[in-house]
Amino acid sequence: MTRVGLIAKDGLQQASGVLTELAVWLHARGLTAVFEADTARLATDTAGGQIVSREELPRACDLIVALGGDGTLIGVAGRIAAVGSDVAILGVNFGSLGFLTEITLPELYDALEATLAGRATIEARAMLSAHTVRGGAPYSDHIVLNDVVITKAALSRIIEMEVRVGAQPVTRVRADGLIIASPTGSTAYNLAAGGPIVHPAVDAMVLTPIAPHTLTNRPVVIAGESEVHVRPIMADHDEVYVTFDGQSGFPLRTGDLVSVRRAPKPVRIVKSAQRSYFDVLREKLKWGGDNR
């Protein structure tokens, strides 16, 4: 690794000094800092580093250091997937410990040194590929790390959805929505909606209805190689949306079909040497501690 990408959460002024220190630290070791353009404006000194756009960043470096929270890392993962890159992400959390950004600021340089030396553990996390068909023709494609969510508008009534896995009918669910989550996404919206936590090493997807009208509509864990097809059954005044990792989306129309399957490539995330997956769960979910 010779080129290290640097990207921070939009407007994260607390990262200014860290970005400058990182650029100087990398330069002193003969490495090139590659700044995302908005991130470069946060730094007071780029130490001669290169500046590229967000879209160019995954192809311009061998490792990306993402400063912020889980949302920042999810955005980076999506851009990596969009260009088919294999570049790994080292996520550094600027708030409380994140499910994905599990490296804290005091651990940054030890984690970076271990990664550059090839000693760090890099975990492959499955992503999901979503394909929407409208009027019998391809309409949109997205790759997500956490989830694809089909949901009603804030003031809309319960929506009905026809769900298939492959060619097999599963259910016609009446609910506020449906979450299709990866194992990584099982600790995001899926968890809040009462879905199960799935270890990221498990090859699976989770289908979780949001506030179902019938209590027998329960979350279902399916094989990771499955393809899920969801078709909203819409009346004239229904407002139904599909969102991708909570970062983008659009309204659906009558007859639209949303299909979700495992993406061709996983995203590679640098693991903390200080804590395991279960350590993160215990800390974030306060298992065995003070839950007040």
Give a short overview.
The chain is built from 7 helices and 20 strands. With 292 residues, it is α+β, with helices and mostly antiparallel strands. The chain has 2 domains: 143 residues, Probable inorganic polyphosphate/atp-NAD kinase, domain 1 (Rossmann fold); 135 residues, Probable inorganic polyphosphate/atp-NAD kinase, domain 2 (Tumour Suppressor Smad4, Sandwich).
What does this structure look like?
- By secondary structure, the protein is an alpha+beta fold.
- It folds into two domains: 3-125 and 266-285, 3-Layer(aba) Sandwich (Rossmann fold); 128-262, Probable inorganic polyphosphate/atp-NAD kinase, domain 2 (Tumour Suppressor Smad4, Sandwich).
- It has helices at residues 16-28, 37-40, 57-60, 70-83, 108-116, 189-192, 277-285, and strands spanning 3-8, 32-36, 50-52, 63-68, 88-93, 103-104, 122-125, 128-134, 137-144, 147-152, 159-165, 168-175, 177-181, 204-210, 220-223, 227-233, 240-244, 248-251, 257-262, 267-270.
- The strands form four sheets. The protein has a six-stranded parallel β-sheet with strand order 3-2-1-4-5-6, sandwiched between helices. A six-stranded antiparallel β-sheet has the order 9-8-19-16-11-12. Strands 15-14-13-10-17-18 form a six-stranded antiparallel β-sheet, with no helix packed on it.
- Helix 2 (37-40) links the parallel strand 2 (32-36) and strand 3 (50-52).
- The radius of gyration is 20 Å and the shape is elongated.
- It starts with a strand and ends in a 7-residue tail after the last helix.
- The mean pLDDT is 94.
